[in-house]
């Protein structure tokens, strides 16, 4: 995975593709705990078998200097077949392996804000690894350099303690505790005393707590909504990263969790702004809100082939080249314009295709509303199978979105009709057909003249138009259309959905046989996920 400058890494893909494994790999090699003695768990190994293959995590760097020398890589490996040193953590400097120092680790650190956010943990002193503990250690190291400030603080803390001692119950308890403690340790060779203190002289800043405030009133974290708590956790991590680390990776798992749609949009913009400020950010997401075509170089599609997690990542140059190879006009498809071209027309409904196993591109909402119902009745539940039915709002957009999604290896099936009202010269349909590999002019002319329902391996034509074809294959269609208009109005998409819901399924009927044929073609739609040469396959 390449980390472009000023663009967040967005890990997308279907569930169980391996996005969380990538995060875990980053956290192992760059996270808060020392990885040199880590013992992997069963599920860390390929097929849960430690003897299959060694685990290897490699991070390559630019501008990573320690004592004037360039650190080229950090390498963590675990090999169960090794007798002496199964786990190794090394730095590569000048092509040679060296031990990793704390100075190297401080140059690039990974902070993971998990899907559960764990705000109460990270804003506490539960361990030395919490964000608050690490932050206060930083403050403390700067404070103790100034002895005068330390003396001033000690005096103020003593004043605070004297006020507590004015509470008689506290003073009496403190005296009794000290007396008992002295008696217990009286016979020991060493002497200990116990005393309450308003501060820890070894960690002055541990007296500070982070508390939310609303309208001048201090609130508890328990009073915050999940969304507020999440935003506070992310903001704290970002401020920490900006304050103390130039080389930091902030990982946010599922930033959409607990946020309503408008808050998701706001947070997506904030994350992009954080990245523009120079912070390296990685997010895993299941929401198209966080997918930004203008930041395509950071978009990483995670998927599985034969139970192996792989990634697909493209540059603007890669996408422009792919589009030209698939019939896009070369003068209108340039690396410096291709991203803005796609971003201008990208809706969240279209971008949801990046989370699908397969995509069916249709002309408009009529087919998008009706298709899932017909396919479900013949045994293909598109939602369960991870198939996205995406309306592209016109024949002229079919080729464009086919190119984008297939560039990432997502299989795409095209559906349209031969209604020429918005494509009088047929160029939009020809563009779509040429894009999927049908280039013979005579063949194209024949396809554009089809008036019946034709189903092929990678596309389907609904004759002259969808409604007329359905009326031809289903005798009850017209009657149901009239019922629909009385109940839901004249809207074509709503009428089409109503009819699809109310048509009785009969496996012997010619219409349902055609839908079954279409479902079978979609099931057999082949994957086309050849990895880009620069991409890394992860297991």
Short description:
The protein is α/β, with parallel strands linked by helices and 539 residues long. It has helices at residues 19-30, 102-107, 119-122, 131-143, 147-164, 168-184, 226-244, 261-276, 316-325, 338-343, 348-351, 365-377, 398-407, 427-435, 441-448, 466-473, 477-488, 492-502, 510-523, and strands at 9-12, 55-60, 65-66, 69-78, 87-93, 96-99, 109-113, 213-214, 217-218, 248-253, 280-284, 299-305, 308-313, 358-362, 387-391, 412-416, 453-455, 459-462.
Name its key features.
disordered C terminus; about 15% strand; about 550 residues; 19 helices; six-stranded mixed beta sheet; 18 strands; alpha/beta; elongated
Q: Can you tell me about this structure?
A:
- The structure is a single chain.
- 33% of the residues are buried.
- Helix 17 packs across helix 18 (492-502).
- This protein has 19 helices and 18 strands.
- A hairpin with a 2-residue loop joins strand 5 (87-93) and strand 6.
- The strands form four sheets. A six-stranded mixed β-sheet has the order 7-10-11-1-12-13, sandwiched between helices. Strands 2, 3, 4, 5 and 6 form a five-stranded antiparallel β-sheet that branches.
- Mean pLDDT is 85; it is low at 528-539.
- It has 539 residues and is of the alpha/beta class.
Number of helices: 19
Q: Indicate the overall shape.
A: elongated
| Average predicted local confidence, pLDDT | 85
Structural class: alpha/beta
Distance between the termini: 13 Å
Rg value? 31 Å
Which regions contain 5 or more consecutive residues with pLDDT less than 50? 528-539
Strand order in the largest sheet: 7-10-11-1-12-13
Oligomeric state: single chain
Portion in helices: 25-40%
Largest sheet: 6 strands, mixed
Strand content: 15-25%
**Total number of beta strands:** 18
């Amino acid at each position: 995975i390449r980390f472009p400058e000023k663009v967040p890494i967005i890990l997308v893909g279907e569930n169980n593709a391996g996005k969380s494994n990538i995060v875990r790999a980053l956290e192992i090699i760059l996270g808060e705990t020392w990885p040199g003695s880590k013992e992997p768990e069963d599920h860390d190994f390929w097929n849960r078998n430690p003897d299959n293959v060694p685990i290897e995590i490699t991070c390559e760097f630019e501008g990573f200097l320690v004592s004037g020398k360039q650190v080229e890589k950090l390498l963590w490996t675990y090999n169960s077949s090794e007798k002496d040193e199964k786990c190794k953590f090394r730095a590569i400097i000048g092509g040679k392996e060296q031990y990793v120092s704390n100075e190297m680790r401080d140059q690039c650190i990974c902070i993971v804000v998990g899907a559960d956010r764990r705000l109460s943990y990270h804003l506490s002193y539960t361990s030395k690894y919490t964000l608050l503990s690490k932050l206060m250690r930083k403050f403390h190291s700067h404070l103790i350099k100034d002895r005068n400030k330390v003396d001033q603080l000690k005096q103020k803390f003593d004043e605070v303690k004297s006020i507590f001692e004015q509470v008689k119950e506290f003073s009496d308890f403190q005296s009794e505790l000290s007396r008992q403690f002295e008696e217990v340790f009286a016979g020991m060779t060493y002497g200990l005393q116990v005393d309450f203190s308003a501060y820890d002289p070894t960690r002055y800043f541990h007296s500070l707590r982070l508390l939310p405030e609303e309208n001048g009133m201090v609130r508890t974290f328990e009073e915050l909504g999940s969304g507020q708590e999440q935003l506070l956790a992310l903001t704290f991590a970002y401020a920490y990263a900006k304050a103390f680390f130039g080389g930091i990776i902030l990982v946010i798992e599922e930033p959409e969790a607990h946020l309503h749609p408008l808050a998701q949009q706001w947070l997506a913009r904030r994350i992009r702004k954080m990245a523009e400020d120079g912070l390296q950010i990685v997010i895993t997401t299941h929401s198209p809100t966080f997918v930004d075509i203008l930041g395509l170089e950071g978009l990483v599609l995670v998927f599985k082939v034969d139970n192996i997690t792989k990634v697909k990542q493209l540059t603007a140059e890669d996408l422009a080249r792919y589009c030209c190879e698939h019939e896009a006009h070369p003068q209108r498809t340039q690396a410096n314009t291709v991203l803005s071209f796609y971003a201008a027309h990208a809706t969240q409904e279209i971008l949801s295709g990046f989370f699908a196993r397969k995509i069916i591109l249709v002309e408009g909402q009529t087919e998008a509303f009706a298709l899932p119902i017909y396919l479900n009745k013949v045994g293909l539940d598109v939602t369960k199978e991870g198939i996205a039915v995406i309306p592209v709002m016109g024949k002229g957009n079919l080729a464009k979105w086919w190119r984008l999604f297939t560039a990432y290896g997502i299989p795409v099936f095209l559906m349209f009709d031969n209604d020429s009202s918005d494509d009088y010269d047929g160029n939009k349909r020809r563009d779509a057909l040429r894009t999927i590999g049908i280039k013979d002019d005579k063949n194209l002319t024949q396809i554009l003249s089809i008036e019946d329902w034709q189903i092929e391996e990678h596309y389907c034509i609904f004759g002259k138009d969808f409604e007329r074809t359905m009326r031809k294959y289903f005798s009850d269609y017209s009657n149901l259309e009239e019922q629909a208009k009385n109940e839901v109005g004249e809207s074509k998409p709503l009428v089409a959905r109503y009819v699809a819901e109310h048509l009785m399924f009969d496996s012997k009927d010619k219409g349902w046989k055609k839908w079954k044929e279409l479902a079978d073609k979609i099931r057999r739609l082949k994957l086309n996920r050849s990895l880009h040469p620069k991409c890394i396959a992860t297991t």
